[in-house]
Design a protein that fits this description.
The chain has a 6-stranded mixed β-sheet with strand order 3-2-1-4-6-5. It has helices spanning 16-36, 41-52, 55-60, 70-80, 86-105, 111-118, 121-126, 134-146, 155-166, 170-186, 192-212, 229-240, 246-263, 268-287, 293-309, 317-347, 353-362, 375-378, 406-412, 416-426, 443-446; strands at residues 369-373, 390-392, 397-399, 432-436, 448-453, 467-471. Strand 2 and strand 3 (397-399) form a beta hairpin. The chain is mainly α.
Amino acid sequence: MSWDPRRLHDRAPLPRAVAVAALVAFMAVTFFVAWHHEAWRDEADPWLRARDGDFRTLVLRGAYTGYPILWHILLVPLAKSGLPYFSQSVLHLAIAAAAVALLLWRLPLAWPTRLLAAFSYFFAYEYAVIARASAPAIALAFAAAAMHRQRAARPFAYAAVLALLFNVSAQGFIVAGALAALFVLELRPRGGRALGAAAIMAAAAALSALQVRTPPDPSRIGRLHPFDFGAFVSSIADAFFPTLPPWPAFLAGVVLIGLLALALQRSRAALLVFWLPFAVLTLLYGYVWYGGVRHAGFVLVLALLAIAVGEPEGAERRYAAAAALLLNLALAISCVVAARFWIVDTNEAFSGAEEMGEFIRGHGLERFDVAAHSAQQAEAVLPYLPGKRFWYAGIGEEGSYMEWDAAYERGLDVWYPVAELRARQHFAGRPWLLLFNVEMPDPAAHGFRLLYTNRRPIFAKKDERFWLYAPLR
């Protein structure tokens, strides 16, 4: 079947050879880049929580992380068994590959859209190379979209997918909520199996809500603030044109969203699946927290889901052609952005954490106590030091993962000279080392000598450049 540029949908599968070749190429490229990728603190924290945390940490204090437990559960067997940190990347890449396989084989999108999306920035870099809970959320969302037209025949399987999606991330919860609402509103006839499936979805949503309810002493992240219009602009601009100048990208993104809405205007399913989560994400990003380009990709995911669940015969063809062309243009640009990040992440460091961890381990320095500040950045080094913990000078406690509570927040506000003084007092009479993520002016005058600082250029998390000092006396 040839591709009709006036269509957003295409239910005919890709030729098997094309789909297999695309998936193999995706896996080869992302594995190669991930092998050279230096993980940062957002990747380190779940691993450390799975490695060093107990039941209370993983379940009862999960609300402080803002994430339900599913991603941490997947990491526990790897981290507890002593596997290397890279095993997290292997697991994440396998989940990302499953998401792309669903995209290529099962989602009713036009052929060019499937292929371009597979190698676009979000699916081939941000949600593949960088190991976070996003890949499981997208794989489950695509699985739900692939099952959309069989949900009446397989309600419990569909409910199981949504139950997992509710419990992987905030964005996953929002998407699952929209799909569950659509299930309840549109499924006919309403029988016992449908009600049972709806009950499973409701129970999963309640379980997730209990896990991420606002704790009594949260950090500043997670608290309401005045609406951030810049976050709203960025969430649309970066969704379709990541890293491009924000205002032109925002206007093009608005046009694309408008064309999709017009093309799918007769499909209640498509409109609900896009607009309900989009409205909630806008409130979340604007009033609570927008973490940058990595969060914007879920707006693109919503657009693809809306096309997948929409009825193609109800699309307005005069808008569908323009929407398809603009969407594919955006994805083509995104592929170029992805290729640029593949190259730079291979040649330069994403974070300085791995290099510092290798120096400490390679010189046998992990046998010393280490005072670290600032804790948020310093924890990124610990996954490269199996079994090691730091004494976090700002918090005044030994640990690895972040607690994300008010005490943690106060620790980040401690000045570096104060952290140095606290460490001297804490380790008085014992050998110890000092790890900072800022350079100490004139270390000798402070009674230290520099042991090591990062040599490789860091292109992304420049606040994760580290300086390791030893006291002179």
